[in-house]
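Hey all, sorry for the wall of text incoming. These are the three entities for the joint prediction.
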Amino acid sequence: MFRATIRVRSGRREELIEVTREVAHALAAGAANDGIVTLFVPHTTAAVTINENADPDVQHDMVAFLQRLVPSDAGFRHAEGNSDAHIKASLVGPSVQVPWVDGQLGLGRWQGLYFCEFDGPRTRELQVFVG
Amino acid sequence: MFRATIRVRSGRREELIEVTREVAHALAAGAANDGIVTLFVPHTTAAVTINENADPDVQHDMVAFLQRLVPSDAGFRHAEGNSDAHIKASLVGPSVQVPWVDGQLGLGRWQGLYFCEFDGPRTRELQVFVG
Amino acid sequence: MFRATIRVRSGRREELIEVTREVAHALAAGAANDGIVTLFVPHTTAAVTINENADPDVQHDMVAFLQRLVPSDAGFRHAEGNSDAHIKASLVGPSVQVPWVDGQLGLGRWQGLYFCEFDGPRTRELQVFVG
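and here's what came out:
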């Protein structure tokens, strides 16, 4: 099984950080030429998704929508004040798959891979597996 | 690695289109008898999910709920007017797994596979992988 | 392909039930030492996710948030009265991946595996696959 870890440094409480290039680079360094890549986030207040990478407004709109959908002050019980981040993490999800075909990420024309920070700024990990 | 592509033609801006039969047919044509199937959507305004296939009202209710949850005119920045579709795509997700056991889809009794169109009508692709 | 089924008994209409130990136990009984684990829910009103397992308030806050987000009486068409559960199932998702490395679940420090019941109480299944 191929395995790599990518470090991600977030700069704000909530943001989407593109990691397409970093993931492709990690795979090119050692993975076989074909397989299904699993991206896994070992954190409970962050997530991973695939979305448009042409217009940064898409990432902005998603962060702003999730802030309105799950306000951080919505009367939660969890005393650390980051229940919103835990909920966003499960809505977006901790894992996603992407094809790796002939040594290339099999993304659609407009797709990019995004690490989703919901309780930063922090230093985070994104794990990359094949097979 | 087994790989197939299914064409999906949506007829409305937003709808769930069942693809269970098409996916099973593609797998039967060439996949080994056992494995985990990954369904992957190479688009940024569509998604894939698994849900009830007995009552079409379930699909209707989901589309209607997502329309209310993420209105298309909610003051987004992205100028193409489809930020709602990008957000719905990440909430539902671009990939899902389903077991393939003894040459059959290992779905629960009421489950069907659904391509989720959020910015149609368009001709779309759903990619099917095993291994 | 390694395959196991875990029985889950929910006690309420909506709750998150931790299954980390049960999944690890099933894997230890027969899976190879390394691989990507796929957890699959063969139901249409339940889901699976990964979230914090230190403070039970996080699970409470997530259930309460989803109840407010998708009220069960929101004027749905589906006559069985559980459209909210079907929608929650697709928002959280029927499958998730987790690494299995050197015979251990590769979870982050605060992560646990959760079966998400949205239309209980019922006896449910969670399927575990590797490879």
